[in-house]
Amino acid sequence: MIEPVIDHIASRPPEPGHRITFTRLDGSRSLDLVDLYEAAGNLARELGGLGIGAGDRIGILARNRVEWVLLDLAALRLKAVTAGFEPGKFEPGPALCRRYDLAVLFTDLAAAGTRPIDEVAGLAGRPGAPPPPVRWRPDDETTIKFTSGSTGEPKGLAATAGSIDASLCAVQEMFDHGRADDLFCFLPLSLLQQRYWIYSALRFGHDVTISTYEAALPALRRARPTVVMGVPAFYETAKKHIESLARRRAPDRRDPDRRDGDPGALREAAREVFGDRVRYLWTGSAPARPAMLRFFHDAGLPIYEGYGLNETCIVAKNHPGAHREGSVGRVLPGKKVMFDEDGLISIHSDHPVNRGYAYAPPGESARVFRAGGVVRTGDLGYLDDDGFLFITGRADDVIVLDNGKKVIVRPIEERLRAGAAIEECVVFCPAQTHLVAVVSPAREPADEAAIAEQVARANAALGPDEQIAKVVVAGRFSVEDGTLTSQFKPRRQEIFERYRAQLTAPARQEVAS
């Protein structure tokens, strides 16, 4: 029997010769994975001496750094539960500890009732006897992760060891990460899937590089990864950098964004941005524009889109040898996709993440989690004859007009984002008579004429009921102002409330500050 991933990394040192690197704008720091494992064991022993044991919750509210990883791995060595809090979304202090029943909260912010994360390095540097090996049952909870989608307060979700193991083994079967690989990731470590790649490095023997979103593009060429884990918004930004470089390299050639542009300049620019060792790019967490995916394939950087939720882990993934444009891939082993009469997707998992939210409004768990390990996703889609999954939109984003016409907004939003003037957009129908788009401009000040032209092009390709009757030009959406999630998805409810007055005003183009 193959040893489960979590048991393996919690009970035995990794294969020597591989490193974890933390890279920021001011430099990089590397650590051998064997040394990381030893330091995590030291930290686990010291935390145990403080009275922290199996089932206790260790809170972490800090930016990406080595101490974050050490605390997470130490928790696995103790069978403790990690609770990762996204910086900027939670305030450290006694109230947070009480709400989430934390035994201890480590943070890089000064706050009463917490411990400074800077002290972790000292604890991890104290040599001594390693903690005894532990064994995790598949339904044991390893971490509390927080999800609110694009609306609402964060809901706590306890992830199981079995769900993590199933996902990592499925990914390894598809992509065969090995000795020559270095996986690059930069989203907050409070997102459990970012820690998957650290677990993968410890179990399957490869390097891993941890950065931040702000430092990711400058760090890529220095890091020279073989795999980049990113959300669509990141690749859209990278695409613009590559296009700009390619134009400077071939200024007398046609626009490199076109499929008949200069492939040599495009590929050279892509290598300059991503380094010269990339074998593939991974994306998911939000819908990716087909034009963006094609761009990277044309630039010599294969990019594979997938699909999953916090409530289900990875469900489907394109990968070498099984890739279909427009789909999110074939369904993974251990997952079953089911559809109701409207195309609403539910997922059955052999190893469920959990069977309900730990912290959520009354009725929320029953709305999403069904008996027998089934999760109602809220997404719409279908499977083609070859088993590839296609996502067509969100059930909540199906607008029913007063004439009875049903409109799915996702394809409309994709058309609006297809040009250079609009970076992001959200379509609403506040009066059930016409569609209104709140658009985030690609640059500030917004080019209102270019936005209007882009909307007109989209409308020309849409049916009468799908056309945009009014545009509200907003400021640029961001994580900091609360209009984007940490995975750079629009927060629809927040955006609606912020621009409610403009959305409900008479139908004409408006500019909102």
What are the salient characteristics of this protein?
nine-stranded mixed β-sheet, alpha/beta, 16 helices, 31% helix, globular, 27 strands, 513 residues, 26% strand, seven-stranded mixed β-sheet
Task: Outline the fold blueprint.
Elements: H1 5-11, E1 19-24, E2 27-32, H2 33-49, E3 57-61, H3 66-78, E4 81-85, H4 94-99, E5 104-107, E6 115-116, H5 119-124, E7 141-147, E8 155-160, H6 161-175, E9 182-185, H7 192-204, E10 207-210, H8 216-223, E11 227-230, H9 232-249, H10 263-274, E12 280-283, H11 290-298, E13 303-309, E14 313-317, E15 330-331, E16 335-339, E17 344-349, E18 357-359, H12 364-368, E19 369-370, E20 374-383, E21 389-394, E22 398-400, E23 406-408, H13 409-416, E24 422-428, E25 435-441, H14 448-460, E26 468-473, H15 492-498, H16 500-503, E27 510-511
Parallel strand pairs: 1-10, 3-4, 3-5, 4-7, 5-6, 9-10, 9-11, 11-12, 12-13, 25-26, 26-27
Antiparallel strand pairs: 1-2, 7-8, 8-18, 13-14, 14-15, 16-17, 17-20, 19-20, 20-21, 22-23, 24-25
Helix pairs in contact: 1-3, 1-7, 2-3, 8-10, 9-10
